[in-house]
Amino acid sequence: MSEVKVGIIGATGYGGLELIRFLHNHSEVESIELFTSSDAGAIFSSKFGHLVAIQDQPLQEIEIDKLSKFDVVFTSTPSGVTSSLLPPLVGVGPKLIDLSGDYRLKDIRSYEKWYKKTAAPEHIVSESVYGLTEWNAQRIKESNLIANPGCYPTAVLLSILPLIKDRLIDSQNLIIDAKSGVSGAGNKPSQLTHFSEMNENFSIYKINEHQHIPEIEQAIEMFADVQTTISFNTHLVPMTRGILATTYAPILSGVTNKQLNDCLIESYKNHPFVRVVQDVSSLGTNRVKGSNYCDIFVKLDDRTNRATIVGVIDNLVKGAAGQAIQNMNVQFNLPETLGLDVIPLFI
Ligand SMILES: NC(=O)C1=CN([C@@H]2O[C@H](COP(=O)(O)OP(=O)(O)OC[C@H]3O[C@@H](n4cnc5c(N)ncnc54)[C@H](OP(=O)(O)O)[C@@H]3O)[C@@H](O)[C@H]2O)C=CC1
Ligand SMILES: CC(=O)N[C@@H](CCC(=O)OP(=O)(O)O)C(=O)O
């Protein structure tokens, strides 16, 4: 029986298109309606030919009255949009799942510092629940406003949180080196993502200033009860999808490679989307491409007494739309894997 009526704002963006791809095959979704800020009336499939005969509906103008009739509204819009768009919808009916950064940081001054945008009202931000599904399912189930995590934080946090929580690594000295495919930057062309400047190039960007730094620090405190400051940098890889994030962390005295691995295996034994990889040759963005998996890996470097910890995701799936649907499943008491149980593309 299909019951859930879905609205998507930002449907024409990369996150929105991935929401449509997965929700189309979701057995509990009754209908999907699509909204735009720029092209109301346009037939969706005329913009995206791969959806001919699948999504031939017209895009609708964003109106609060129309949106309040849905069971769930996904917002997949640039930062700074939902801070003013969502407050009138909070508490009036639909469950809200925001893929942008607007409701993730509890300290609104921190949001304004890192995003350089006006924050959402503090009393609404305080109601939002951080949607890192594997770590926060109980609160997600009870919430009507989910702040879906950023793509980099998802890969980083899923790989390091168990080791910090079990006090196996020194959380005060984390160095995180992350790389992303270009779809992480969304569908708006820019100098950074221009083919002739990005192709055959490997670049670092937002050095020491990435907006995901406070999000990762906040989540470490929230889930592992540790205050810390991290070194975190991001790189652009000339490929479309995927994030691989490597964390270097000193181990605490006497910790073994087996303890590190056992901790990850034990933490995720009941979480089907997190796979603890043993063989490093099985690690790579093509092993998760198009899927909701997060592959994680740890290995002790016993010369330096540092652990090398790796998290790999598809930024558009586990890093955005997939995790958002996983959160919807939790909110509606459905199996977490519903609609998301797909095999990675690999090639
Ligand atoms: N790409 C990624 O890997 C990830 C992205 N995110 C976050 O998710 C959000 C969406 O990302 P992504 O899909 O890549 O972004 P895109 O830039 O691809 O798409 C965003 C869409 O938002 C709509 N939009 C733009 N301005 C407004 C506005 N003022 N009001 C309402 N809608 C607007 C546009 O559609 P239209 O013109 O039709 O309204 C646009 O297609 C962003 O906040 C991003 O940071 C999070 C995790 C990963
Ligand atoms: C490759 C690339 O540019 N990636 C983006 C990820 C954006 C994102 O997910 O940011 P939000 O926190 O706004 O959701 C970036 O590094 O800013």
Automatic annotation (TrEMBL):
Principal EC category: oxidoreductase
Biological process per Gene Ontology, one example term: L-arginine biosynthetic process
Entry-linked SMART domains: Semialdhyde_dh (SM00859)
Domain called Semialdehyde dehydrogenase NAD-binding: residue spans: 5-143
Protein name, per record: N-acetyl-gamma-glutamyl-phosphate reductase
Keyword Nuclease belongs to the record: no
Chain segments annotated as transmembrane: none
Keywords from the named record: Amino-acid biosynthesis, Arginine biosynthesis, Cytoplasm, NADP, Oxidoreductase
Protein species of origin: Lysinibacillus telephonicus
Subcellular location: Cytoplasm
SUPFAM superfamilies: Glyceraldehyde-3-phosphate dehydrogenase-like, C-terminal domain, NAD(P)-binding Rossmann-fold domains
Keyword flag NADP: yes
